């Protein structure tokens, strides 16, 4: 192996006489360099990359707008608090204005919220902002130094220096603040020089984004110092609380909490933000890219059961988008209908073969009855290109109708008792795409509940469903390219539902006994007294006839109208459009990502499997010829020491004798080497080999595969199997 390539070495330093870089070099580099993609031009010039970039840019901009609108109210209230309390803090003696921002338990997204607040304060020039992380404030001295340094040095950073300002930049660099000068006395003098005369823009905002991670004693002393300085410096403290207000009360005793003026602000809960993101962006008919039911459920489960991070969910969705488009130029057709028609002409023979290999293409070919057409579809690219516009149009209309019916179905069954199919739109989306919804027992339970509803409740519910669907058609579907065709189909179905709903509304609850008696007379089988029945067969017939008559008598006009409209909803909406992906139109794979195995492997990962692969076969990751193995069980002396020790320990039982382990390690290292004439005796070990073995065993213990035995000092205990 190369001496600088080793699993057991992490950093290699080569002193080549390099000098310290000039301070102004980074600023010049920032002006001269432009951000470029890591991908080459041969990849970024492909049609699939253009389609991916366009789709992601639209989705990302929509997500940013939605998040800004969601957090706007809380940020405005927080801004009003900061700008309003800064004038009162100078007048109130030793009372520190404090805002507790309940951010929820989605810890990875906290910093983004405070970055937005900081940017707003900077753009409005409302205050000087300092963000203190718990890792930088392990002691009180470090906390005060970090706060003073960030408040004073904020304007000292060279930003966008022009050539004419070089002298000013050099002077600014010379006056760079040192950590030893970061004291409250220096902050007083700096504030008096910069904000003399009672400037209203001089509030000093200190943000602690991870309140629970701070040391309690350090935090208490820090707050007491800030409150003691409120008479001369307009401090405003902002606490990022991830749990609840009980954490603040338990951390701050009375002598500290009495020095702060606390106000609580509540941000949007993470599940609520996710539901808004899914309903308004990812499930919007505006975008042609869709996730399969399993992929959608997988991403939501990561959010709900792992981290509650909306940013992590967005990145997972972005990875699915990349995997979908980067499969080839055939997936560049996953765009608007007009752009897809243009890109059909750019498809090559390899792209057409990719389309022919789609799973849904085979059923499409099998339903063709003409042999010549089948041959043309399978062999002639030009003929298939002529068929693609209609196939793509059918797919786009299918997903638009699916989304409209999902809106209707969500309003219909979302608020039923116990919510058998789910309460949220994302739950119904997953249930409808995974398997036929009508075959699920929860669906039958929902239909039974709907049939048991009263007349007023059912009419009101169905009226809300129709109104919500019509609103969705006018706002979401109508502006789209194929929106008119989808709207015409859905409005015809909704008009039929309105007519049947009028019949339900006019229906009476009275039993139709007259018609039933007439039917029984025309049948020629009048009911007789059961006491006069002569045989068992006749008794059976009379009982069956009476049961049918009782069932007919219990059916009212309202029940028949209700059953009729429920049957229409089931046939025209549920069975016709809320179909699983297995029953979707041909070529629906162009618009739907369903490779759940790749997403699970790359997003969640398996650390233990990855470690085993790296140690058992280093060539898999290092790609060096010296570690290339013919078999997985092979041991070579050119492998890293850690890999040799790991593969030897796999051959042992629960207890590993260290001396035997060392002898096996030495034999592997000496395999293939020429034996020296004056070979060292068997009982003597080369110190270099022993040192390498000791280091490899220590690294294996650090990884958690073994531990030293307390009962036998010359043995190690194996921990994994």
Please tally the helical runs, counting DSSP H or I stretches of 4 or more residues: 31
Q: Largest sheet, described in full? A: 5 strands, parallel
- Spans with pLDDT under 50 lasting ≥5 residues? 3-9, 16-35, 156-167, 169-174, 514-525, 674-678
Instruction: Classify the helix fraction into a percent range.
Output: 55-70%
Distance between the termini: 29 Å
Shape, principal axes of CA atoms: globular
Query: For the residues shown, what is the average pLDDT?
Result: 83
Oligomer: single chain
Radius of gyration: 37 Å
Adjacency order of strands in the biggest sheet: 2-3-4-1-5
Organism: Drosophila arizonae
InterPro entries: ORC3, ORC3_ins, ORC3_N, ORC_WH_C
Subcellular location: Nucleus
Domain Origin recognition complex subunit 3 winged helix C-terminal: 608-721
């Amino acid at each position: 192996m190369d001496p600088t390539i080793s699993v057991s070495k992490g950093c290699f330093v080569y002193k080549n006489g390099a000098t310290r870089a000039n301070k102004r070099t980074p600023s010049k580099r920032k002006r001269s360099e432009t951000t470029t993609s890591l991908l080459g031009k041969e990849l970024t010039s492909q049609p699939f990359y253009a389609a991916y970039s366009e789709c992601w840019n639209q989705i990302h901009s929509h997500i940013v707008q939605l998040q800004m609108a969601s957090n706007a109210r809380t940020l405005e209230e927080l801004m009003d608090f900061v700008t309003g309390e800064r004038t009162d803090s100078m007048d109130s003696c030793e009372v520190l204005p404090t805002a507790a921002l309940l951010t929820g338990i989605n810890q990875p997204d906290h910093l983004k919220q405070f970055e937005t607040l900081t940017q707003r304060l900077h753009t409005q020039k409302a205050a000087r902002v300092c963000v203190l992380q718990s890792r930088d404030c392990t002691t009180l001295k470090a906390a005060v130094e970090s706060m003073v340094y960030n408040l004073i040095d904020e304007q000292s950073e060279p930003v966008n220096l022009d050539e004419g300002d070089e002298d000013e930049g050099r002077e600014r660099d010379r006056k760079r603040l040192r950590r030893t000068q970061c004291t409250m006395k220096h902050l007083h003098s700096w504030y008096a020089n910069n904000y003399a005369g009672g400037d209203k823009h001089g509030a000093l905002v200190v943000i602690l984004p991870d309140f629970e991670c701070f040391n309690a004693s350090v935090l208490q002393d820090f707050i007491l110092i800030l409150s003691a300085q409120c008479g001369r410096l307009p401090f405003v403290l902002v606490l990022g609380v991830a749990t609840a207000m009980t954490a603040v009360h338990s951390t701050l005793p009375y002598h500290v909490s009495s020095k702060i003026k606390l106000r609580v602000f509540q941000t949007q809960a993470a599940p609520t933000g996710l539901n808004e993101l899914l309903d308004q962006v990812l499930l919007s008919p505006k975008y042609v890219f869709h996730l399969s039911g399993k992929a959608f459920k997988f991403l939501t489960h990561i959010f709900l059961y792992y981290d509650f991070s909306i940013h992590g969910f967005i990145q997972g969705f972005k990875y699915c988008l990349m995997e979908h488009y980067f499969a080839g130029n055939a997936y560049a057709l996953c765009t608007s209908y007009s752009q897809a028609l243009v890109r059909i002409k750019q498809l090559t023979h390899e792209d057409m073969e990719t389309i022919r290999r789609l799973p849904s293409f085979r059923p499409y070919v099998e339903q063709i009855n003409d042999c010549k057409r089948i041959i043309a579809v399978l062999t002639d690219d030009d003929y298939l290109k002529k068929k693609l516009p209609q196939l793509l149009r059918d797919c786009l209309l299918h997903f638009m109708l699916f989304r409209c019916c999902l809106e209707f179905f969500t309003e219909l069954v979302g608020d039923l008792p116990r919510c058998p199919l789910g309460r949220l739109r994302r739950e119904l989306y997953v249930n409808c795409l995974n398997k036929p919804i009508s075959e699920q027992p929860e669906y039958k339970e929902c239909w039974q509940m709907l049939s048991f509803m009263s007349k007023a409740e059912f009419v009101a519910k169905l009226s809300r469903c129709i109104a919500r669907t019509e609103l969705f058609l006018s706002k979401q579907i109508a502006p789209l390219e194929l929106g008119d065709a989808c709207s015409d189909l859905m409005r015809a179905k909704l008009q039929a539902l309105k007519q049947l709903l009028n019949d339900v509304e006019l229906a009476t609850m009275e039993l139709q006994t007259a018609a039933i008696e007439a039917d029984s007379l025309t049948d020629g089988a009048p009911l007789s007294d059961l006491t006069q029945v002569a045989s068992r067969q006749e008794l059976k017939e009379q009982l069956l006839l009476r049961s049918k008559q009782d069932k007919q008598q219990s059916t009212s006009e309202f029940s028949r109208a209700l059953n009729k409209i429920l049957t229409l909803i089931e046939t025209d909406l549920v069975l016709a459009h809320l179909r699983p992906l297995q029953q979707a139109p041909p070529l629906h794979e162009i618009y739907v990502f369903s490779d759940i195995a790749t997403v699970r492997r790359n997003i969640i990962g398996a650390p233990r499997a990855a470690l085993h692969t790296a140690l058992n076969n280093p060539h898999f990751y290092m790609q060096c010829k010296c570690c290339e193995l013919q078999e997985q069980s092979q041991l070579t002396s050119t492998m890293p020491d850690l890999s040799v020790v790991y593969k030897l320990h796999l051959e042992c039982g629960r207890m590993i004798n260290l001396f035997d382990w060392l002898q096996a390690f030495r034999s592997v290292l000496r395999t293939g080497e020429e034996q020296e004439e004056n070979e060292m005796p068997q009982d003597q070990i080369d110190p270099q080999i022993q040192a390498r073995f000791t280091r490899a065993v220590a690294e294996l213990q650090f990884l958690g595969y073994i531990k030293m035995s307390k009962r036998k000092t010359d043995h190690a205990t194996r921990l994994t199997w």
